[in-house]
Design brief:
three-stranded antiparallel sheet, alpha+beta, 150 residues, GMP Synthetase, Chain A, domain 3, single chain, four-stranded mixed sheet
Length: 150
């Protein structure tokens, strides 16, 4: 059976605060001031988190399948915003750095292509990925050009 039944329910609580209902529990979101109160993550942060989390899970899956011992994985996702031609605020890119001690060259060459979220988002937003070891040395980089060159 295809996994096309993804459902997330969202309900407004007050002003720009919303409760996102996942099957496993709820999450409160909010916009930062002056629009909201900043009492929860904003949707743009959730997008960056989803990209980074999917990349980490994809890399971990490959490492586990290859029976590779690794230390705990960590990641940082940084979103960039800018104005489009109409002056509307848009996400213009996301940079993700994964810290992956023990990552193998084979997994580093494969994991990005298996990340459902990243590959889907990359269709409209450039996402740059770097994997480092514990000392901060870059051991893999994946850069995607903007799909809409200016």
């Amino acid at each position: 059976m295809a996994q096309d039944g993804l459902v997330v329910d969202i309900a407004q609580v007050e002003d720009f605060r919303f409760t996102v209902h996942f099957a496993q529990g709820d999450l409160m979101t909010d916009e930062p001031p002056p629009t909201g109160t900043g009492s929860g993550p904003q949707p743009t942060e959730l997008l960056a988190a989803a990209v980074a989390n999917c990349l980490m899970a994809s890399l971990l899956f490959c490492l586990n399948k290859s029976h590779t011992e690794t230390g705990p994985l960590r990641a940082r996702a940084q979103g960039h915003t800018g104005r489009d031609a109409s002056g509307r605020l848009r996400i213009t890119g996301i940079d993700v750095t994964l810290i992956a001690p023990g990552a193998t060259p084979r997994c580093l060459s494969l994991f990005e292509n298996y990340c459902t979220v990243t590959q889907s988002v990359r269709a409209g937003i450039p996402i740059n990925v770097a994997v480092t070891d514990e000392q901060g040395r870059v051991i893999h980089e994946g850069r995607m050009p903007s799909p809409n060159p200016s």
